[in-house]
Amino acid sequence: MEDEVKPVRQPQRRLSPNLEAVVRAEIVKLMDAGIIFAISDSKWMLERLGGHEFYCFLDGMSGYFQIPIAPEDQAKTTFTCPFGTFAYRRIPFGLCNAPATFQRCMLAIFDRLVGEIMEVFMDDYSVYGDSFSHCLHNLELVLKRCEETNLALSWEKCHFMVREGIVLGHKISKQGIEVDRAKIETISQLPPPVSVKGIRSFLGHAGFYRRFIKDFSKIALPLTKLLEKDAPFQFTPECTAAFETLKEKLTHAPIMVTPDWSLPFELMCDASDYAVGAVMGQRREKHFQPIYYASKTLNDAQENYTTTEKELLAVVYAFDKFRPYLVLSHVVVYTDHSVIRYLMSKADAKPRLIRWILLLQEFDIEIRDKKGAENVAADHLSRLEAPPVDNFVEEIDDSFPGERLLAMTLVDSVTPWYSDFANYLVGKQLPKGMATHAKRKFFSDLKHYFWEDPYLFRIGADGVIRRCVMEHEMGDILYQCHEGPTGGHHGGNCTARKVLQSGFYWSSLFKDADSFAR
């Protein structure tokens, strides 16, 4: 290396236990060859601690003062006072590299015990076991290591053979990971903030537990808008509602289970106009149990995405957020937008969508459709109401699914405008009495459509995929895009473009939008 070149430091990447086994095998091989020496730091403390029967929590005594400073570096700690000039022989508080040095020292002392029977964070040592005798045996191994290295403990702060405890601001127990109720009680008693600094402080404290709060970004949106540059500070009723809702959510925060690496993970993702959200969990005994909630607000550019792009953005965000958990694990993704399954196998989509899809290729993904009403863990959108079942006078005949899939008739005898395309894509059934030139036009138009049960989708000239809607949905869609909260009462062309941006299409869209706007 040249003298003027500065070394590059990169943060450690989190590894799931599945991937960790592969990395460990390579590390052991290099260590046995004498090529490397071990300096490790794990980010999985809470996940590994939760879910055990018994715990022992140990506390080091005067932690920093137990670590000597190299003689050639002692002069760097020199300080002066009225009684003379002094230097430290052991690590004092206040050195910028003291925490990292102390943590590396603790990891070197306990070595292979970390991650197997205990976790270490600075001078706090947590020992665990699945039974009383198992935990007692693990405690014996840890105390023996302390004796061998002359590591002193503060017995007044130690707790032995307990079933729960506080670690890194979280309550750890057999049930999983919970919030620290003492901290939550302090937050719940806070008065409404009266300045931007107060808003930032509250969101910082509440954000520490955001993994426990579904739709945190959406709830906190009125508060985060007050943090924007040059935004006037007006604590509106919406801000008060968001402030009280966050305190209420924290007070009743659920218990998060620890991941079982032998089971597949499940993701439920959804997007609204201003935020995307996801929940990661696992299904145990046929019940979905959450592990982590995540959400983020959309920036100005992302707010202009189509519905399809926002739904895929939610999936990409979830995989990016939970990547350390999901690598080398089977992942089932539930989303209420079935077009995503088609996009995963489509190569001629927009460049942005292709980049997102490429990011998902390293994961073992299974896409499953789930209606918005059933996607209770992540769905926070206002959806168009589905037509009542009583509107149909003829049910689908299960014995002829291909021929009768779209053969149901509404009370007003309106046949869907896209029934010819759908019937051909599903059952290869051509419309009767079609002339030769009409057939050519039919097949020319057909290449722009595809069927993804239970919807028909159209690929527009701009490469965006939109859902074809039936007649009874058109009025509600036009109303929302023209007179809804984001409508703006624009003219026919603007309203039609708003419909297209929302991910919907029908053949007479521009004509209907012009009539509606008039």
TrEMBL record:
InterPro entries to which the protein is assigned, alphabetical: DNA/RNA_pol_sf, Retrovirus_Pol_polyprotein, Rev_trsase/Diguanyl_cyclase, RT_dom, RT_RNaseH
Superkingdom per UniProt: Eukaryota
MF (Gene Ontology): endonuclease activity; hydrolase activity; RNA-directed DNA polymerase activity
One Pfam family cited in the UniProt record for this chain: RVT_1
Ranges of residues in domain Reverse transcriptase RNase H-like: 260-363
UniProt keywords, alphabetically: Endonuclease, Hydrolase, Nuclease, Nucleotidyltransferase, RNA-directed DNA polymerase, Transferase
Annotated ranges, domain Reverse transcriptase: 45-172
PANTHER family: PROTEIN CBG26694, PROTEIN NYNRIN-LIKE
Protein's UniProt name: Reverse transcriptase domain-containing protein
Lineage: Eukaryota, Viridiplantae, Streptophyta, Embryophyta, Tracheophyta
